Amino acid sequence: MEAKIDKVKELIRDKFHDNTSYFANEIGVNREYVSAILNGRKNENSPKFCNALIAYCEKNDLDYKDYVQIN
Fold first, then answer.
1. Cα→Cα distances 52→8, 46, Å
2. For residues 34-54, b (16+ Cβ closer than 10 Å) or e, as one string?
3. Which pLDDT does position 17 carry in this prediction?
4. Where are the domains of the chain?
5. Over 90: is that where the pLDDT of 19 sits?
6. Which residues pair with 2 in a beta bridge?
7. What is the arithmetic mean of pLDDT over 44-51?
8. How many angstroms separate the CA atoms of 36 and 11, rounded?
9. Which of 7, 31, 49, 60 could form a disulfide with 24 if both were Cys (CB 3.0 to 4.6 A apart)?
10. Residue 37 pLDDT greater than 90, yes or no
């Protein structure tokens, strides 16, 4: 499982006015952790991040496959 970083950044730009803190709060993951993933300091295959992103998508009627690659 791996987050599609470019698509996640689009989601943050479009739905959260480009505010990573709002996005992190909404998915229930620490802002610094989310920022590290988005900026390549942490691996995008984080189960914590991917599972939170999938849960957010399901809650908001989004197709999680647009944001997470299932291997």
1. 12, 10
2. beebbeeebebebeebbebbb
3. 97
4. 2-69
5. yes
6. 69
7. 94
8. 17
9. 31
10. yes
- Mean pLDDT over residues 3-15, rounded? 97
Using alpha carbons, select from 10, 26, 21, 13 the residue that is nearest to residue 59: 26
CA-CA-CA-CA torsion sign (37, 38, 43, 49): positive
C-alpha neighbours within 13 Å on the C-beta side of residue 70 = 7
Beta bridge partner(s), residue 3: 68
pLDDT at 18 (0 to 100): 97
Nearest residue to 3 via CA among 52, 61, 60, 58:
52
> Which residue matches tokens 């620490």?
30
For the segment(s) 2-69, the CATH number from 3.30.9, 2.40.33, 3.40.50, 1.10.260 is 1.10.260
71, pLDDT greater than 90: no
